[in-house]
Amino acid sequence: MARPTKAELAAAHGRGIQDVIAPGLRVLFCGINPGLHSGATGHHFAHPGNRFWPALYRSGFTPRRLTADEQEELLDYGLGITNLVNRTTARADELSTEELRAGGEDLVRKVLEYRPRWLAVVGITAYRAAFGRPKAAVGPQEEQVGATNVWLLPNPSGLNAHWTPATLAEEFARLRAASS
């Protein structure tokens, strides 16, 4: 996948991208919102520094490391991707609390329609704002969306230095074991 130019990145601001989703998934991963690389390419977690794809592989969700442009292959493994807010920004902190709350409502509707076994929200701070759960922590949550279990994962952005590639993979592996 070619890297977007500066002009392509600038033009991507405010765009949305398509979900990778189907009924009855094992896990539906939910990012915060698409970044500029994702908006420019149309692929989730497309920034070269994002650790989502390596974490999926290292945790055993996929048999090899997929790239963002292979995102549709996730469906073959019972996995999908959506976002809380489908508006491309340079940084997640450009989103308002109101946008996150509205995105949470949209996410609930989507989960009730598609009925994945697990919803894995990738980004604790955004989840807390979207669902009014200020003390939510990484791991399985007591709350469900319909019959769907909820798991919080750390943000795999390279900017989230608190989580190393190894510890991200460990947390993803905990979800994989629970969802098997």
From TrEMBL:
Domain Uracil-DNA glycosylase-like: 18-179
Pfam family, one: UDG
Entry's Gene Ontology BP terms: base-excision repair, AP site formation
CDD domains tied to this protein: UDG-F2_TDG_MUG
Record carries keyword Cell membrane: no
Keyword DNA damage belongs to the record: yes
GO MF terms held by the record: pyrimidine-specific mismatch base pair DNA N-glycosylase activity; uracil DNA N-glycosylase activity
Record field: transmembrane: none
Signal peptide per UniProt: none
Record keywords: DNA damage, DNA repair, Hydrolase
Top-rank taxon, per record: Bacteria
PANTHER family membership: G/T AND G/U MISMATCH-SPECIFIC DNA GLYCOSYLASE, G_T MISMATCH-SPECIFIC THYMINE DNA GLYCOSYLASE
NCBIfam families in the record: PRK10201.1
Name used for this protein in its record: G/U mismatch-specific uracil-DNA glycosylase
